[in-house]
Design goal:
CATH architecture of chain A: Orthogonal Bundle
Number of domains of chain A: 1
Order of helices and strands of chain A: HHHH
Number of strands of chain A: 0
Oligomer: heterodimer
Largest sheet of chain B: 7 strands, antiparallel
Order of helices and strands of chain B: EHHEEEEEEH
Helix content of chain B: 25-40%
CATH architecture of the largest domain in chain B: Roll
Largest interface: A-B, 18 and 15 residues
Number of helices of chain B: 3
Distance between the termini of chain A: 19 Å
CATH class of chain A: Mainly Alpha
Strand content of chain A: under 5%
Strand content of chain B: 15-25%
CATH class of the largest domain in chain B: Mainly Beta
CATH topology of the largest domain in chain B: PH-domain like
Radius of gyration of chain B: 18 Å
Structural class of chain B: alpha+beta
Structural class of chain A: mainly alpha
Chain lengths: 68, 152
């Protein structure tokens, strides 16, 4: 999905460097999600149950919004 | 490029890619087809055609997946950043990802170097070689590894 590529790769260019070590692990875990679920998270239609994952999702979404 | 640490390993079990096999066959047969109208003697044309056919067979056998005993079946990006390559015959090889690795949404070319071995091992992965999620995870991780490399 190109939307996912845009958001994830955009985040790697802007935002990823500021993540703490545990947040980077969460980011990695997020990558293992199915495309549809990940898109739901990143579009803000579903909030991850795990607060740490939700925190990283919020950072990705904020970076994507800042880029537009 | 392989020294970044990861929370979990990434295991790739690529299937033979129909896209890549199609391109390999089309490219080689295309080269043979344009060979015959050329102003060369027939033995030379036949020799070149045979070389091209052998090249095609070698290229197909190098494809990941189940294309031959020598083919690598599993590539594991370990948590220490190194890779473990396993052939269908059970042979295991440690390898390091080389910085010349190429990442594109529709194509990934993994280049590996092995310690104390000359040359490079190359694996070309089209999107149909892996499931969608694994292919995406691989591309994002490769970008992460590329960033870490540039940051050093």
């Amino acid at each position: 999905m190109l939307e996912l590529d845009d958001m994830l790769h955009g985040f790697l260019n802007q935002g990823f460097d500021e993540l703490a070590e545990n947040e980077r692990d969460q980011f990695e875990n997020l990558l293992t999600c199915h495309d549809n679920l990940l898109l739901e998270y990143l579009m803000g239609r579903t909030v991850p149950a795990d607060p740490d994952t939700a925190n990283v999702v919020n950072k990705i979404r904020a970076a994507a919004q800042a880029a537009t | 490029m392989s020294s970044t640490k990861y929370a979990q390993p990434l295991k790739l079990q690529p299937e033979a890619s129909r896209i890549l096999i199609g391109l390999l066959i089309a490219g080689h047969l295309g080269a043979i087809a344009v060979l015959f109208p050329l102003d060369l003697s027939l033995p030379i044309k036949i020799t070149i055609a045979v070389v091209l056919l052998v090249s095609l067979v070698i290229a197909l056998r190098k494809q990941p997946g189940r294309m031959g005993e020598g083919g690598v079946q599993t590539l594991t990006w370990q948590t220490d950043g190194e890779w473990l390559l396993e052939t269908a015959g059970g042979e295991k090889m440690e390898a390091s990802l080389h910085e010349s690795t190429y990442v594109h949404p529709w194509l990934v070319v993994l280049n590996f170097r092995q310690e104390n071995k000359p040359g490079m091992l190359t694996f070309t992965l089209a999107p149909d070689a892996l499931d969608r999620e694994t292919f995406r995870e691989l591309r994002v991780r490769l970008k992460m590894a590329g960033k870490a490399e540039k940051g050093r």
